[in-house]
């Protein structure tokens, strides 16, 4: 009898494992059942699944634009390189579900986008990928469901960030797909952002007068605190222009608002000039020195820009009171169990236990060639 029970248990375990594998659906099978994403499904099937045939074994997050989103994007006639960049920018190397995010607290997660033409975040030989910002709103109740919010390279006034159309679609063993209404915009250069936003006209003018704009436009890994027009003194004497600019920039240290709590003081590029960073968790206010951060986390090709309401350089150099370097970014989520609005429990493993999706140099070359061949036909394929 014991042998029979033991054999029965083994059979049941074997059957359970078989059913679990059988219920795991591949990415193309899952996407082909969704409405309005034929173009994205075609792109993914012609690219990622060819260079990573076992993609369903990895943990990743894939943001999938709708057909309408891609049609609008293709009207801009992007080059194959730009299409490739936005495509990679929509892939994160780990699974991220809505319920893993925190309320109003933005986390920045590495995408698959690297390459000097689009990313310049560090000065070491190892290329740092561009990041995507994510945060959650809502209470999780039936009347106020959780919603994932995205921060990409969008920065123009009167434009919107990509929005989630459908979230938390399980694919493969560890992957997740979120359908979005807009193709991700790759972060632009400092010069492009400052030159395009009217709210920074005075600051941009001072930057140009300093002769430092080209220097910082090409400098890897910077944080810029740009004063909005109302708080920027236009009559700064010529001899003080450079000091004002350098006091508002931190080099070799990309400080997203997420790191303000862990960075009590930073050293600006002005010699011996330090200022504090703070975060009021009650009011959700961020400050750089005495200046209020009014426009947080504008992602740049080579760092991040925060809009502030007043100039930082308003007093003599200070003595640092704490760490002057932000800690390394962490994008991995802790081990936890979360519950979706459908009361379906999702168990999220420690990221270190899930094989992370990575693209090595040969795969980038292959993907680039595939997309170059595909680009001419995309505009007409789903018209």
Automatic annotation (TrEMBL):
The record's listing under SUPFAM superfamilies reads: FAS1 domain
Query: Signal as a keyword?
Result: yes
Residues forming the FAS1 domain are 24-184, 187-312
Q: Where is this region: Disordered?
A: 312-332
Looking up PROSITE patterns in the UniProt record yields: FAS1 (PS50213)
Q: Does the keyword Signal apply?
A: yes
Tell me which InterPro entries the record gives: Adhesion/Biosynth-related, FAS1_dom_sf, FAS1_domain
Q: Which Gene3D superfamilies match?
A: FAS1 domain
Tell me the first and last residues of the signal peptide: 1-24
Assigned GO CC terms: extracellular space
Highest rank taxon of the organism: Eukaryota
Listed A to Z, the keywords are:
Signal
Protein name per the record: FAS1 domain-containing protein
């Amino acid at each position: 009898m014991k042998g029979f029970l033991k054999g029965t248990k083994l059979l049941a375990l074997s059957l359970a494992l078989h059913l679990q594998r059988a219920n795991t659906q591949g990415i193309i099978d899952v996407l082909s059942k969704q409405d309005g994403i034929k173009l994205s499904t075609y792109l993914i099937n012609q690219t990622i699944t060819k260079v990573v045939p076992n993609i369903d074994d990895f943990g990743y997050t894939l943001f999938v634009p709708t057909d309408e989103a891609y049609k609008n994007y293709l009207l801009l006639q992007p080059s194959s390189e730009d299409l490739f960049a936005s495509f990679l920018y929509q892939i994160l190397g780990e699974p991220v579900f809505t319920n893993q995010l925190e309320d109003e607290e933005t986390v920045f997660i590495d995408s698959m986008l690297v390459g000097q033409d689009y990313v310049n975040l560090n000065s070491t030989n190892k290329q740092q990928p561009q990041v995507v910002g994510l945060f959650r709103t809502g209470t999780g109740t039936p009347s106020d469901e959780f919603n994932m919010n995205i921060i990409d390279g969008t920065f123009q006034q009167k434009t919107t960030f990509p929005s989630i159309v459908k979230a938390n679609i399980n694919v493969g063993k560890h992957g997740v797909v979120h359908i979005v209404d807009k193709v991700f915009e790759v972060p632009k250069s400092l010069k492009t952002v400052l030159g395009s936003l009217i709210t920074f006209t005075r600051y941009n003018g001072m930057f140009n007068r300093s002769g430092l704009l080209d220097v910082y436009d090409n400098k890897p890994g910077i944080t810029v605190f740009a004063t909005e027009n109302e708080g920027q003194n236009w009559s700064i004497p010529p001899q003080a222009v450079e000091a004002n600019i350098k006091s508002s920039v931190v080099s070799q240290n990309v400080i997203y608002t997420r790191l303000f709590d862990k960075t009590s003081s930073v050293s600006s590029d002005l010699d011996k000039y330090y200022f504090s960073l703070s975060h009021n968790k009650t009011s959700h206010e961020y400050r750089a020195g005495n200046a209020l951060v009014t426009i947080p986390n504008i992602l740049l090709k080579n760092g991040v820009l925060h809009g502030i309401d007043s100039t930082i350089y308003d007093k003599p150099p200070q003595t640092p009171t704490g760490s002057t370097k932000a800690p390394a970014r962490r994008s991995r989520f802790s081990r936890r169990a979360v519950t979706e609005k459908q009361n379906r429990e999702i168990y999220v493993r420690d990221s270190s236990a899930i094989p992370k999706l990575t693209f090595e140099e040969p795969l980038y070359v292959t993907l680039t060639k595939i997309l170059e061949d595909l680009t001419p036909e995309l505009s007409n394929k789903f018209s």
